[in-house]
Amino acid sequence: QVIVHDVNELTEKLFPIVEAMQKHFSAGSGTYYSDSIFFLSVAMHRIMPKEITQIIQVDLDLKYKTNIRDLFDEFENFPEGAVIGIAREMQPVYRHTFWQYRRENPQTRVGEPPPDGLPGFNSGVLLLNLEAMRQSKLYNQLLEPTMVQKLTEKYHFKGHLGDQDFFTMVGMEHPELFHVLDCTWNRQLCTWWRDHGYSDVFDQYFQCEGEVKIYHGNCNTPIPED
């Protein structure tokens, strides 16, 4: 069964919820009404019918090497308290974004590469447990403008990647809200940061062992042919 949702209607519902965070996680002025759609996943639990309990949200620049149905099994692996399944970011973009916080906290894991660091998240493949999101008092508190402001100030955070920035910042503070997907479920291919000042550490973020299930051709990167 396919249900089509009107983008304008969704944006109208989203805007009041995410307006305050847009200025922190959007390119440009960050307050455009249309920008709200880039925060759809953040508040999906507030605008979807209650009978919808789980959603997989994916970018368009993906190539599937396995049945997407297998990804639904990951919902069973969520630890208690987790509301969203998401893979790590595979470039040092957040090493860059959190530079000031990292300078003030030299021992931090924030922005460090896996397996021990917190490299941030990539929202190209998202598992949204809507029921858990609705019931999580902590997650809904974090959507409040005052909490968003508090965290952006703590981490000196200014991003431009929409929902991905929000999830990354929240994940630095509350990693327990996230089930980290294996990199093979979102094998990102973009290498932009390799050529923009981070060639020395790039491979620590970019490596991914295992058979790829989903390729992600982010930043217009060609996806390998079969």
From TrEMBL:
GO molecular function, one term: xylosyl alpha-1,3-xylosyltransferase activity
Alphabetic keyword roster: Transferase
Record flagged with keyword Transferase: yes
SUPFAM superfamilies: Nucleotide-diphospho-sugar transferases
Protein's UniProt keywords contain Transferase: yes
Gene3D superfamilies in the record: Spore Coat Polysaccharide Biosynthesis Protein SpsA, Chain A (3.90.550.10)
Pfam family name, one: Glyco_transf_8
GO CC term, one of those recorded: endoplasmic reticulum membrane
InterPro entries named among the record's database cross-references: Glyco_trans_8, Nucleotide-diphossugar_trans, XXLT1
GO terms (BP aspect): protein O-linked glycosylation via N-acetyl-galactosamine
This protein's name: Xyloside xylosyltransferase 1
